[in-house]
Amino acid sequence: MTSDDLRQLLENVSTGRTDIESALARLGTSSVADLGYAQVDLDRRARCGFPEVIFCEGKTPEWIEGVALRLIEAKQDCLGTRVNAEQAAFLAKSLPLAQQDRLARTFWLPTPGERPAVKGKVLVITAGTGDLPVAQEAVVTARAIGTHVELVADVGVAGIHRILRQKERIAAADAIVVAAGMDGALPSVVGGLVDCPVIAVPTSIGYGAAFSGVAPLLTMLNACSANVTVVNIDAGFKAGYVAALIARRAAVRS
Q: What is the CATH number of the domain that holds 155?
């Protein structure tokens, strides 16, 4: 329930249009929508600053549509991640106003009207071009939450001069996401160049001994740079979400 909804409910009680028992019942049940196949958290934006996000992997297109429609009905922004081709085609017909990004595998349907002020700067960096799908998921997520986002691609340690050319851009960021597979060394390099948090995302890009992202994950967990922290393998959404929260808070306090 938004503050506007609560205000309207209280006004209805004060004027007698809604009795106290009905108001109590609404307050007790309005935060969760029971769809049978999903319990949609409608209070998350008030608690955490951003509505519930739909992780689409493993869900039918109809389930995703149902959750999205319930979020829209509650005047919540709707972000979906890990959208496959079948789901994307279905949602393009049922929710044509949503912005789909097939590289990031996301769909994004903001509530109409005035958007919250965009605050903070997030920079998303990839070690290689193969890391772009994970990085783009971080980009879409951070933008949805309300930050300025830039992307710098293919600046891995095999050509260290490429990241050194970006020193001004990385120095201007409030939070940085670095997506890297193979040996996963780039976050440590970036962390040694900046005074902001660096969120490392190991990707599943690499040959056999990379173990589908386990090798870069272990490298990042052992990063020498103290400002580097790590999310799960291929977790672009989590990295973008955390980076946006950090950047927005930094902008408020600056």
A: 3.40.50.1970
Question: pLDDT value at position 254?
Answer: 62
Question: In the structure encoding, which two tokens stand for residue 82, read together?
Answer: 């890990």
Determine if the pTM surpasses 0.70: yes
Q: Which of these three, 82, 113, 144, is where a domain ends?
A: 113
CA distances to 167, 233, 235 from 211, in Å: 31, 11, 16
* Helix, strand or coil, per DSSP, at residue 204: coil
Cβ contact 104:137 at 8 Å: yes
Mean pLDDT by 10 residues, the chain (254 residues): 69 82 62 87 83 94 94 90 96 93 94 79 97 97 95 94 92 96 94 95 95 96 95 97 94 72
Q: Are residues 138 and 107 in the same domain?
A: no
119: tokens are 């605050």
Q: Distance (Å, rounded) from C-alpha 102 to C-alpha 178?
A: 20
What's the farthest any 2 CA atoms get from each other in the chain? 71
Q: Are 127 and 247 in a shared domain?
A: yes
Question: Which residue among 113, 133, 154 closes a domain?
Answer: 113
Query: Which domain range does residue 146 map to?
Result: 121-253
Are 177 and 122 in contact by the 8 Å Cβ rule? The answer is yes
